[in-house]
Design a protein that fits this description.
Elements (H helix, E strand, L loop, with lengths): L1 E4 L2 E2 L6 E2 L5 E3 L2 E5 L2 E6 L11 H16 L3 E6 L6 H10 E6 L2 H7 L6
Parallel strand pairs: 1-7, 7-8
Antiparallel strand pairs: 1-5, 2-4, 3-4, 5-6
Helix pairs in contact: 1-2
Length: about 110
């Protein structure tokens, strides 16, 4: 399962201004093999971590309870790197990959045993 947020420009009355320098929405999408299996809408100015743990928990639990799908691998970008999100994903998938490039950069100077 892959999870990411995708900015959708929109000039509706309730659309919020985003760091993408436009008004719109910023839904989170879960997909498997390029097929969307879940998504939830968010305001354009919402931080990517805002309520993401709730979104992932609902999508992943529906995948298992309604479809009987076991999530073998989960992948997300650094917007999913938080203690709560890692805990939720770890409990609901066999393997997960969450990019944390700033962490890698900070570890470069650490010597390996």
């Amino acid at each position: 399962m892959d999870f990411d947020h995708q900015f959708i420009p929109a000039h509706k009355y309730d659309a919020k201004y985003s760091y993408k320098q436009d008004f719109g929405y910023f839904p989170g999408w879960a997909s498997i093999g390029g097929i969307i299996v879940g998504g939830e809408n968010r305001d354009g100015n919402a931080n990517v971590k805002f309520r993401q743990e709730d979104t992932l928990r609902r999508i992943m639990d529906r995948m298992k309870s309604e479809l009987g799908v076991v999530i073998e691998r989960f992948r997300a970008d650094c917007g999913s790197f938080s203690k709560e999100i890692v805990r939720t994903v770890e409990e609901r998938s066999n393997t997960f990959y969450i990019r944390a490039s700033w962490l890698f950069q900070s570890l470069r100077g650490v010597s390996q045993p």
